[in-house]
# Entry
Amino acid sequence: MSTVIYDVNNKVGAGIKKNPLRPLMVSAFIVALFILLPIVVVLTTVFTGSFDVWRHLFSSVLSNYLINSIALMLGVGLGVILIGVPTAWLTARCDFPGRQLFTWGLLLPLAMPAYIIAYTYTGMLDFAGPIQTLLRELTGWEYGDYWFFNIRSLGGAMLMLMLVLYPYVYLLARTAFLEQSPSIMEASQTLGYSGKRAFLTLHLPMARPAIVAGLTLALMETLADYGTVQYFGVSTFTTGIFRTFYGFGDTAAAAQLAAVLLGFVALLIFLERHSRQQARYHSLKGKPAKRIALKGRQAGLAVLVCLLPLLIGFIIPAGQLLYWSLSEAVIADNFLNLAWNSLYLAFLAASIAVILALLLSYAKRIYNRKKSVSMAVSLAGLGYALPGTIIAIGVIIPLAWFDNRLIIFFEKQFDIEIGLLFSGTLVALLFAYTVRFLAVSLGSIESGLEQVKPNLDNAARLMGYRPLQVLKEIHLPLLKGSILTAFLIVFVDVLKELPATLILRPFNFDTLAVKAYELASDERLIDAAPASLLIVLVGLIPVILLSRSIAVSNQPKV
Amino acid sequence: MQNVVELVQLAINNVTIGYDGVAVVKDVSLTLGNGQIGCLLGPSGCGKSTLLRAIAGFEPLMSGEIIMEEKLFSSSTFTLVPEQRQIGMVFQDLALFPHLTVEENIIFGLKGWSSAKKIERVSELLTLVGLAGLEKRYPYSLSGGQQQRVALARAMAPRPKILLLDEPFSGLDASMREVLVPEVRDILLQEQMGALLVTHDQMEAFAMADKVAVIQDGKIQQADTAHSIYHEPINRFVADFVGEGDFLSGIVLDHYRVQSSLGILKADQQHGFLVNQAVEILVRPDDLLHDDQSETRAQIISKQFRGAHFLYRVKLESQQELYCFASSHQDHALGEYIGITLGLDHLVMFEQS
# Structure
């Protein structure tokens, strides 16, 4: 062994500090705490609320809410499967005229918020609407002479919701069908299975976890819906929470209702996570299978099956909105102002969501050996499953409490009267949006960051780049796409969001969604069209992004 | 050890590395001379990659020091940041920057060079690794072997003091590896660049390295030339892990001789075991020779055709099984008895476990 002489003090350059401050980690924990606050607040009301309120709720309205909510979930659940699975199978495994068009076209209803499609069809199908008017003109019937489907009903709400929510099932089931390796099909053929039998015994069960995951997403949205059920007069949890909160001014009871709803959501979250895990287990990647070419009557049927949801879920209502906007609608004086409010709010919320998501995902990446950090990050993503009403209640209770303390404090100490600083301002609204949509930006940015393998950082460091330079030269260029996607999706989600905005918006602060809701409530459906149309048009952006990524994943990988 | 006085470039002195207080590398010492190619060989999870990452500056030390050209790189209280170490590294997953072209990848580490010199270096390296003309391509459009070469060129571009290679060939198929491994060695020699390779594949280690350190459970078991590691393993782990072989049991007769089922074996120097002690003698497949003249017969119980030769598994009368190489002209059937002789140059023995 040779002896090496060296100077121990020859420490040139910067070293790693032994106990570095961890601002990133600390801020990740703080963000997670803030995001969890509304959920914790709602949950504690279960235990702190008065028993009388509970008894009252049970004896009066709860069973009604329960029955309607469950019926709605059953109906919508069945509907999204009946629409989503066949269309997924046809576009994934078969070939027929227009398949490529339908592949992305079937996503279009995602751009249509449920309450907007509900307003549109009500306007079309009501007694005074174009359909019934035409019917009367053709037949000479008058009011009471004939039966016509009453869209303002539980059935109508089911129909509206399934029309815009089936894409969740379609998307996930389609991916599952695509990923089923052709050798499985060939193996089943050598074992004597073919056609319908192979579909029912192999392909469908293999795609089941993905279908269930899509179904639970659709059901979460169903539970969160307020605009549709409120407009159709169907009493569910969300409308109940609203009525209790506004009508009776009973915050405690509203929070307790929210807690019951939270229970349902928790069940769905569990089901969704479980199915996703299974879906990963079931996916066997291989070369894409050869599509079954459909001919003649079969091809015609396939076109019909794919065309109907697209037509009824998007083309007809969007066309109607366009027609109303251009011809009959009275455009509000403050329309530009409304649009500005909406866009500005969505911009702020999307920026916050993206910045926090970057912060959280970097904390998770850097402290990857700390379980507490990754747990904090996944908790921060919990809000997405929560209906806007629950979040609004959970936000307003602590903020109002804090505001009151502040007001009392300033009065006593300085004899100054201050107004509501948090609960009645945009702060409350932005807080709620962040809680609800952080998961969206987090998902996009985390998966983007996963592509940036740790060794890319290591390689750049060894080539003489300091951490911030690595961020600029390697991470930023590679993350650009995910950041943009995250921003756009949150932007559009905020634009469409209705219940939380209704509860938390500052006095006299209107957005496009709120205006559409108010005009529809005043039975001015046609005048609601321009605002609705704008929401749908902006909502198309993430759908286009999604369909593009589908088109890319269809191509063979290099 | 060679008697040539070698200039120590990299010295690893009593290094211990661990996560959450659990040591993964335990009190390891190793030196590497200027321009020497070293190899850390061991099964997965033995701590070899962790040691490499510590040399690069990605892992702090619990104790010990890492010294490069007489400058302290790491100690228990100090870790020089990676960007100031002037070390090149080829990663297991290659870590090519996906948003940069081949040329941009290679230039990435040439901060502060003039653009004329950058271009010159790129073309020099691409010629060296046989990829001239692919400057403008993106990594995804290259084959696995080509990506490998770009990663190598990128790591060597700034003329680092030493090149670290972390299982760089593990993603390639066998035939590709056979081409690339000697090629990389030639390139390193041509650039006069010292290197430290981490691998679990002994053929890679033997083909690349001047000096091989066999690591198990965080400790260096033996550090020596490939030839010595193979023929003079110092313990059973090294003997087992490196190469094929069997252990023949025997009883020590005196300071030189051992009684085995293949007769009395004589060591060329005192073996240091006690008389009457039960020992195991390492027998490599090439130590057992097929010899029709021999009186010792063994039955063939399995055989593998390996092109140039057969690898027979034979059973002695004592039920002991051994491997035996034979030229591929000597094709015998299963169950046939063949004559064998033991051609041991020197005895490698361990205490019977």
About this structure: The two ends of chain A are 51 Å apart (CA to CA). The interface with chain B takes residues 1-2, 4-8, 10-16, 18, 369, 451, 453, 455-456, 458-466, 473-474, 477-478, 558 of chain A (CB under 8 Å).
